[in-house]
Design brief:
Low-confidence stretches: none
GO cellular component, one term: glycine reductase complex
Strand content: 5-15%
Number of helices: 6
Shape: globular
Family: Belongs to the GrdA family.
Protein name: Glycine reductase complex selenoprotein A
Structural class: mainly alpha
InterPro entries: GRDA
Number of strands: 2
Mean pLDDT: 97
Keywords: Oxidoreductase, Selenocysteine
Distance between the termini: 21 Å
Number of domains: 1
Helix content: 40-55%
Largest sheet: 2 strands, parallel
Strand order of the largest sheet: 1-2
């Protein structure tokens, strides 16, 4: 997660309360999604950005997870995401995201 997005997430958490935020990711690989998820839950693991040492514990999901798919209009999901879903290792992404939530999410 780039430094600007870390800054935005931190500002939103400060303004609205971490318990009121959900971060939705769309990374193409489980490892990349996991790194971004870890950043918004446990703090920036690269020690380079505004979330270094900041444990927000935010709820975080990948757009391809079943919990998120249920939230979208089916036609919109099919048009915008389903083609990419066919080439992603969705099981790997789900496993990575589940592990991060179990370890670090507070809400």
């Amino acid at each position: 997660m780039d430094l600007e997005n870390q800054k935005r997430v931190k500002e939103f958490a400060d303004e609205y309360g971490a318990e009121n935020l959900v971060v939705v990711l769309g990374a193409a690989e489980g490892e990349a999604a996991g790194l971004a998820a870890e950043t918004v839950t446990a703090g920036d693991p690269t020690f380079a950005g505004p979330l270094t040492g900041v444990q927000l514990g935010l709820q975080v999901y990948h757009v391809c997870e079943p919990e998120m798919k249920e939230e979208f209009d089916e036609a919109v999901y099919d048009e915008q995401i389903s083609m990419m879903e066919m080439v992603l290792d969705v099981d790997d992404i789900i496993n990575e995201m589940t592990d991060i939530r179990e370890q670090y999410c507070k809400f």
